[in-house]
């Protein structure tokens, strides 16, 4: 097990990781900008390091400063939380070069799943059903027209490097296609620095289902059921519900079983979320998030399994603490993903059923009282 973990994040997720480390008896290092010097995660950590001024690019996205903080404090692992550097393959590569463990998947897996075209190819190779569409990026308008004619209208044009609904346009007829293609490319290039797009069959009224998985990097993986995030605004999740409506809490749906096997075959390490569209009894892969998600407490509440604890165990080489047979489901629902006005992530507010439970590990969690601002504690500037 690790001796000391640096938490490369802030706010609620930093506190969540800190709690898991406390439960495992691991010392913690908080990094912070000058604006966050009195933040709760800084006050509760065993050590803290200032890594720069308030703008994220100069602090929480500053890889050099974060690595320096690791070397100053002797931290042997980094937990990235979500957002910031959590899906940055270059960051994972740099940590490996410095012999610092990245608590997450390998850089190669981050790269594969970060490219939606390559992710779709990989999913298809692993036996996961995908939405019919182009085999890779569309080269030009003529190529796009051939693909659309083959799969049938309406079609959805999507940015390869996209997310959050940017670079996505629907073409309902052949006449709509040129404008939709040009607009999607323009948005993708502006938002992601990559104007590559691909085409999929547009599903008119699907449910958006995500399956939580954890893998040990050695061929073993388990699924922790589904979350239904179909209620969205501008392609941003507003409400999360688990288990999802297409399945029941008492039976593991075939899609989750297929995904767990695929993740094991891939040799994936850590927590991940595989997202699907569900329509007319069929599931279709759309993407995979190679990190912990904001809404992970929803899954923890229906399984009693501490996902952050599992992430740390796996990264340290201890492996999974559960098998698929150990996983049991209760039911709950939670508003999770974003506030309607700002579209910013919001804290999940679960409404549990009478039989749901907290993660077993967190029931005995012991977080010390906040350290007074005047107290003496280790603090450093990278």
Textual characterization of the structure:
By secondary structure, the chain is α/β, with parallel strands linked by helices. It folds into 3 domains: 4-103, Rossmann fold (3-Layer(aba) Sandwich), CATH 3.40.50; 132-201, Dna Ligase, domain 1; 207-364, D-amino Acid Aminotransferase, Chain A, domain 1, CATH 3.30.470. The protein is 30% helix and 24% strand. It contains 11 helices and 18 strands. It has helices at 11-24, 40-44, 63-73, 89-97, 107-114, 116-125, 141-151, 177-192, 254-266, 296-303, 307-315, and strands at 4-7, 27-33, 47-52, 77-79, 101-102, 155-159, 168-171, 197-201, 207-216, 221-228, 232-233, 236-237, 239-242, 269-279, 282-289, 332-335, 349-352, 379-381. The strands form 5 sheets. The chain has a 6-stranded parallel β-sheet with strand order 5-4-1-2-3-18. Helix 2 (40-44) links the parallel strand 2 (27-33) and strand 3 (47-52). Helix 4 (89-97) packs antiparallel against helix 5. The radius of gyration is 21 Å and the shape is globular. Mean pLDDT is 86; it is low at 248-252 and 348-376.
Per-chain topology:
Elements: E1 4-7, H1 11-24, E2 27-33, H2 40-44, E3 47-52, H3 63-73, E4 77-79, H4 89-97, E5 101-102, H5 107-114, H6 116-125, H7 141-151, E6 155-159, E7 168-171, H8 177-192, E8 197-201, E9 207-216, E10 221-228, E11 232-233, E12 236-237, E13 239-242, H9 254-266, E14 269-279, E15 282-289, H10 296-303, H11 307-315, E16 332-335, E17 349-352, E18 379-381
Parallel strand pairs: 1-2, 1-4, 2-3, 3-18, 4-5
Antiparallel strand pairs: 6-7, 6-8, 9-10, 9-14, 11-12, 13-16, 14-15, 16-17
């Amino acid at each position: 097990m690790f001796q000391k973990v640096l938490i490369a994040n802030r706010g609620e997720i930093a506190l969540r990781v800190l709690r898991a480390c406390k439960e495992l008896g691991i010392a913690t290092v908080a990094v912070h900008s000058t604006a966050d010097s009195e933040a709760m995660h800084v006050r509760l950590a065993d050590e803290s390091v200032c890594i720069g001024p308030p703008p994220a690019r100069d602090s929480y996205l500053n890889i050099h400063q974060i690595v320096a903080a690791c070397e100053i404090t002797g931290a042997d692992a980094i937990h990235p939380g979500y957002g910031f550097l959590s899906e940055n393959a270059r960051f994972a590569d740099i940590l490996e070069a410095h012999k610092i463990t990245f608590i997450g998947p390998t850089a190669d897996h981050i790269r594969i799943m970060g490219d939606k075209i390559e992710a779709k190819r990989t999913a298809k190779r692993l036996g996961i059903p995908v939405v019919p569409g182009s085999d890779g990026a569309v080269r030009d308008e003529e190529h796009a027209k051939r693909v659309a004619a083959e799969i049938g209208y309406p079609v959805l044009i999507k940015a390869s490097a996209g997310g959050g609904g940017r670079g996505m346009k629907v073409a309902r007829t052949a006449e709509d296609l040129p404008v939709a293609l040009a607009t999607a490319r323009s948005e993708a290039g502006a938002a992601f620095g990559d104007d590559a797009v691909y085409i999929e069959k547009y599903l008119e009224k699907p449910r958006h289902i995500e399956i939580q998985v954890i893998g040990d990097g050695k061929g073993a993986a388990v699924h922790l059921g589904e979350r239904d995030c179909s209620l969205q605004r501008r392609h941003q999740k507003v409400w999360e519900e688990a288990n999802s409506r297409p399945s029941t809490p008492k039976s593991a749906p075939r899609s989750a079983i297929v995904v767990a096997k695929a993740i094991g075959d891939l040799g994936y390490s850590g927590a991940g979320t595989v997202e699907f569209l569900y329509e007319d009894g069929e599931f279709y892969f759309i993407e995979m998030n190679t990190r912990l998600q904001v809404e992970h407490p929803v899954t923890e509440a229906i399984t009693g399994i501490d996902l952050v604890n599992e992430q740390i165990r796996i990264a340290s080489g201890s492996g999974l603490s559960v098998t698929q047979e150990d996983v049991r489901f209760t039911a709950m629902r939670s508003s999770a993903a974003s506030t309607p006005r700002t579209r910013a992530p919001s804290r999940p507010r679960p409404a549990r059923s009478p039989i749901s439970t907290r993660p077993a590990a967190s029931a005995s969690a012991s977080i010390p009282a906040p350290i007074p601002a005047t107290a003496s504690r280790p603090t450093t500037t990278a």
